[in-house]
Write a structure and sequence with these properties.
- About 80% of the residues lie in helices and about 0% in strands.
- It is an all-alpha fold.
Length: about 150
């Protein structure tokens, strides 16, 4: 069981490192959108985070698919890539809703800038994302039992 926990811990560290990359992408895109593209509350606090989160989600998926959970991807085909991306994106929608709820809550409570609210909210949604990746999107497939030999 020690090997199992070690592997899970290693994946979590790799996931955290890739999440840092996603956070950089998310924060940069959010800053660009909220600074230069949108000036209304809805544009700054709703539309900008949607765009930035999707950019970060695609970045994180590519890292997860090719590096973190590569041993759980049995076939490297375009179909496999997009099938996993679809599932990943659906799980990200759930994490995004959690992130948005916390972002708006933090903003209402503390009146902070959207970027600071976003960084804090990402900490919460990141845990949900790891769980979904480990247990749903890149779940370990059960091995098929060996074929039975029939004695004639």
């Amino acid at each position: 069981m020690t090997g199992k926990w070690f592997k899970l811990g290693k994946r979590f560290i790799e996931f955290s490192a890739s999440s840092l990359l996603g956070t950089i992408v998310d924060t940069f895109v959010l800053w660009v959108c909220s600074k230069w593209l949108f000036s209304t509350y809805v544009g700054e606090y709703i539309i900008s985070p949607v765009i930035s989160f999707e950019c970060a989600a695609v970045t994180n998926f590519v890292v997860a698919y090719f590096l973190i959970w590569k041993d759980r991807v049995s076939r490297r085909t375009a179909r496999s890539f997009f099938r996993h991306l679809g599932g990943y994106n659906l799980s990200c929608v759930g994490a995004f809703l959690v992130k948005m709820a916390f972002l708006l809550l933090i903003q209402k409570m503390f009146k902070w800038n959207v970027v600071w609210c976003n960084l804090l909210a990402l900490c919460v949604s990141g845990g949900l994302n790891f769980f979904m990746n480990e247990r749903v999107i890149f779940r370990k497939k059960k091995a098929l039992p060996p074929p039975r030999e029939e004695n004639s």
